[in-house]
Amino acid sequence: MREELIVSGRMNPHIDPQLQIWEWHIPAYLFLGGLAAGILFFASYFYIKGKSEEYPTAVKLAPIFTPILIGLGLLFLLLDLKHKLYFWRLYTAFKIESPMSWGAWTLMAIMPLSAIWAAFNIKSLFPKWDWKFDIVKDAIKVLEEYKTPIAWAIMILSVILGIYTGILLSAFNARPLWNTSILGPLFLVSGMSTGAAAIIILSKSKAERHTFAKIDLLLIAIELFLIIHMFMGFRASSQVQIDASAMFLGGQFTAPFWVLVVGMGLVIPAALEILEMRHKKIPYMVAPVLVLFGGLLFRFIMAYAGQMSRWLY
Amino acid sequence: MRYAMAVDTKKCVGCSDCVVACQTENNVPIGYCRDWIVEVTDGTYPQLELEHRSERCNHCENSPCVRCCPTGASHYSDGGTVMVTKNKCIGCGACIASCPYDARYTHPEGYVDKCTFCLHRVKKGQQPACVAVCPTKCMYFGDLDDPNSDVSRVIKKRKYKTLIPEAGTNPQLYFLI
Questions:
Q1: Is B97 close to A21, i.e. CB distance below 8 A?
Q2: In 10 A of CB A10, how many CB atoms?
Q3: What keywords does the record list, in alphabetical order (chain B) (predicted)?
Q4: Size of the A and B interface in Cβ pairs below 8 Å
């Protein structure tokens, strides 16, 4: 038997008895960032493909909400900072090795672009919208000439934003549960799935909903594959990662993760989407709402469980 | 120059004097500490082995905290020590999450704080507070690049281990076994 204990009474707040430096802000932000990234990806992708009229919700309506989603996420990030007045220091440095640094710069770039995209399409939500000031109208007119390059920039940045939410966590080798390169792609796919779900909820056209249900189904399948792949990797890895995965394979996170995230958040919506495609009468809202709920819970569980996984003591 | 510290686990009795000395010297806020004692009990009675370790920031050569810091507040300083610049730190917690030794904490004022190897004392030719105060003289501090420093000599003579070298951090806190 071996017992390792801190005996000098160390009780540093948020560190002991177990790390809890990040509370609800970070997983909530990761969810909002992933959701916005998913919506923006589909908006720019289908615009570039010339399908604006076919998928008006994806290209025009849904992205109107993304500056709000990103703004809310940024607010959560700011609330999480402990030395808030120095937040601008993020933008006096660029550190390529720190995912948080290039994530901050990505947000800085994609936030105004998403607002510009929303401005292009605001009339699809509020038909009587008036910008009031001519200068705004003129600015939008000028920017509209560059709509395609802007769409390309949004598409690339949205992929970076989506994948960074996972890489942010996977860069911490101190937390064995996060320290897997699967996490980046997994968060990206999960974010895109929540984006597709949001588009289904907002869409009024059956054909558009149908397309996005198909896309969502594919994304859920990839997500399930990545989750299984991740746990296979943990099981075949070092002791600390075996211990980290044990929290999900018999440990305290087993039920919430497999029942709520995988079951209710992935498998059930996938089954509902398949049934709907076979023209069974199912309220179309159920599957996407479950996907959104599953995506949110997935990030909360990963953020909390990751901080519990450790090397020492 | 490469500052390092060695702790003799055979001499350490776990009295926590180093912890109190550090808190006093560095004005560590109440309820926080930059160093701590770990007691390891190995075996089954009556075949028991006991190990005491005085632990602190490992001032790693490949520091995950320096790598993950988004602003450059966490940086390498004199002798390879890892330091935090207060007015560059935004308190995001990335370095705290990245440290496998959990050696950092958020100061009540908001910035991240940790062991400095008492660089302010070392620069005056003194020992770090924890080393200076140790009643069993179980700690050795010095420059690894100088073969005649206390720490170089003791590491040459004795067997030692570092904590979780497999985390790839290249820690500079040596435990004599």
A1: yes
A2: 21
A3: 4Fe-4S, Iron, Iron-sulfur, Metal-binding
A4: 159
